Amino acid sequence: MKFTIGRAAFTAQLIDVSRAIPSKATIPILTGIKITATKEGITLIGSDAEISIESFLSVQDDSLGLVIEETGSIVVTARIFNDIVRKLPTTKVTIETNEQFILTATSGEAIFSLNGTDGQSYPRLPEIESDRKINLPTVLFKELISQTIFSASNQESRPVLTGVHLMMNEGHITGVATDSHRLSRRQIPVEFTTDQANFEAITIPKKTLNELERIVQDDQMIEMIVTEQQVIFLIDNLTIYSRLLEGNYPDTDRLLPSSHTTEIVLNADQFLHAIDRASLMSHQGKNNVVQLDITDDNIDLSVQGSSLGSANESISAKSTTGEPIKISFNPDYMKDALRSFSGVDINVGFTSSVRPLLISALEKSETPNNELLQLLTPIRTH
Amino acid sequence: MKFTIGRAAFTAQLIDVSRAIPSKATIPILTGIKITATKEGITLIGSDAEISIESFLSVQDDSLGLVIEETGSIVVTARIFNDIVRKLPTTKVTIETNEQFILTATSGEAIFSLNGTDGQSYPRLPEIESDRKINLPTVLFKELISQTIFSASNQESRPVLTGVHLMMNEGHITGVATDSHRLSRRQIPVEFTTDQANFEAITIPKKTLNELERIVQDDQMIEMIVTEQQVIFLIDNLTIYSRLLEGNYPDTDRLLPSSHTTEIVLNADQFLHAIDRASLMSHQGKNNVVQLDITDDNIDLSVQGSSLGSANESISAKSTTGEPIKISFNPDYMKDALRSFSGVDINVGFTSSVRPLLISALEKSETPNNELLQLLTPIRTH
């Protein structure tokens, strides 16, 4: 294998692909990056067995300055290879391998030799057979991820809850995540045919969606293909492969309260900042709990009983309707939920001090099937 | 105690003083910040017993918006108090204490109560008796710190080597640091009378100089007072107290080679970048060693024998004089030394492959007593 490529473009692709590569792995070859040169271009692959990221650099893309002299493939340790390419002295780098699988990177007067492994020994990625590609609206899908992913569980005891559950319905996709203390639910409008969506629902691991959200730019297209055990995202020259989470996802719709005995309207950021301040004190105590006391438009927020001290604040709501209520909750969960509303006015609905509270935006979207809900289970303090 | 103050200015002073405060301490009260209100203003004190930082906020400084209603003093846990003040909702904060040493911070509708301790129980700082203040040239003194401090030892077996040694001579101060593998030496011109400098030499702990360098702005004045066991730095409204390191500092002048058998001239940054690249490979092996091979103006830099691979680079020197030489050294020490020359052309002098090499700037300063030297002991590889 021998090729020359522009160093900046090569470095950028190495960084994207390396997002999948673990620094330590039980399968040693997975700490490597696979580099394959064909007449058409260079393919880079990184994987941790759950997520694989593939990047294709085409000889036809003039911005890459890619010239292939000899085809072949090799695997080299990703971390050190990336560091070397990043720090080389000139704008071009020539990569060459020999029969002993030693890779040589040359740039200006600098020559690095790295011991590698035969590219044939790297695990193969599944072939993409499906033509059932769904075009996802990039900005809305990234919102769906960021507004739900924090509610996904970290507990491996129920693996299916560690992902975000996507449900396909005519004209929209609904994303749900829950750790059984809180639930996030976002609907976004998506056009697809029943032919394209050959499935009702899938659950995608949190890590996959985190990487997708970081890698994809707002102006890029995302195509999604779902196979029996995998989901594949196509973004320009990048392909992200991920396993799906198995198991029955709970029926979450029945958890959403249909009516409220108390409702308040206030600004999400104003509420967020007050909770954030109060949490400074609740973090000091054994129980990380903040209490709300709603009787009129002045809502009392308080943290009591910490050995270090206490916090009190009165927040002006825009409106308060229904019964007076006292309710306690985990302020960190509330902060996550409030942040997802990006500072708009919100409606918070309560049923009782032991039933979940429901947060939604005061103004509904003009687009149908475009809605965000955050559900939070209170903490019983008596 | 009761006072009201502008929150932004108060936060900035809390941050400076808190630099001295440990998050955990064997003497619990040292995790606190002492706040004292007198008619003249507010004094904040933080300390880890080795370094103490004091800030005075005067009622006469209109920018602080400081109004004192009641004098007194208290100690509260620094970390949480700082977080609270930083996150309060309005531009002003009122601090009040009661007889149970509970501090209340009020800002807008937010009220925080923090359990504190009597300010009388906080250790007292030494009184500054000396009028022997030396005015230090701020920018040059900060250079002296940053260009020597990395050579100070981390080994507590010889405590005196963990600091920077300052020697007072007519018209200049010389700072030296060494961990016995390398030595940094910077001279700066300073005007003082023998009356002001009531000492020949002192050794200041590394941590003190690190904090001083971070806190002091280039346009601020530094005054230094040396007492029997302490050094005190005065910077505007801040006072930094530090213990001095005890013990005899080694006579380092005799370590500096007086002549060289080989000399090269090259650009510090060009050399630095090549060493930095080569160190990517040397960090992979057991011995962190880079080798230089000097025969003509093309200097060969190489790393061999790592199980992962090798690195080679040829660097063009501006001139090479004297005997051919092969010499090996720790690239991380070399990088520290080269960085201190900020990209100017340097002269590197060699005596033999087992004797220290000496780095100095090619162009000497026009100001007398203004010189930087870096000494590096090679590694024997045979």
UniProtKB/TrEMBL annotation, chains A, B:
<keyword id="KW-0963">Cytoplasm</keyword>
<dbReference type="Pfam" id="PF00712">
    <property type="entry name" value="DNA_pol3_beta"/>
</dbReference>
<dbReference type="InterPro" id="IPR001001">
    <property type="entry name" value="DNA_polIII_beta"/>
</dbReference>
<dbReference type="InterPro" id="IPR022635">
    <property type="entry name" value="DNA_polIII_beta_C"/>
</dbReference>
<dbReference type="InterPro" id="IPR022634">
    <property type="entry name" value="DNA_polIII_beta_N"/>
</dbReference>
<keyword id="KW-0238">DNA-binding</keyword>
<feature type="domain" description="DNA polymerase III beta sliding clamp N-terminal">
    <location>
        <begin position="1"/>
        <end position="126"/>
    </location>
</feature>
<keyword id="KW-0239">DNA-directed DNA polymerase</keyword>
<dbReference type="InterPro" id="IPR022637">
    <property type="entry name" value="DNA_polIII_beta_cen"/>
</dbReference>
<dbReference type="InterPro" id="IPR046938">
    <property type="entry name" value="DNA_clamp_sf"/>
</dbReference>
<keyword id="KW-0808">Transferase</keyword>
<comment type="function">
    <text>Confers DNA tethering and processivity to DNA polymerases and other proteins. Acts as a clamp, forming a ring around DNA (a reaction catalyzed by the clamp-loading complex) which diffuses in an ATP-independent manner freely and bidirectionally along dsDNA. Initially characterized for its ability to contact the catalytic subunit of DNA polymerase III (Pol III), a complex, multichain enzyme responsible for most of the replicative synthesis in bacteria; Pol III exhibits 3'-5' exonuclease proofreading activity.</text>
</comment>
<comment type="subunit">
    <text>Forms a ring-shaped head-to-tail homodimer around DNA.</text>
</comment>
<keyword id="KW-0235">DNA replication</keyword>
<keyword id="KW-0548">Nucleotidyltransferase</keyword>
<feature type="domain" description="DNA polymerase III beta sliding clamp C-terminal">
    <location>
        <begin position="254"/>
        <end position="365"/>
    </location>
</feature>
<dbReference type="GO" id="GO:0003887">
    <property type="term" value="F:DNA-directed DNA polymerase activity"/>
</dbReference>
<protein>
    <recommendedName>
        <fullName>Beta sliding clamp</fullName>
    </recommendedName>
</protein>
<dbReference type="Pfam" id="PF02768">
    <property type="entry name" value="DNA_pol3_beta_3"/>
</dbReference>
<feature type="domain" description="DNA polymerase III beta sliding clamp central">
    <location>
        <begin position="136"/>
        <end position="251"/>
    </location>
</feature>
<comment type="similarity">
    <text>Belongs to the beta sliding clamp family.</text>
</comment>
<dbReference type="Pfam" id="PF02767">
    <property type="entry name" value="DNA_pol3_beta_2"/>
</dbReference>
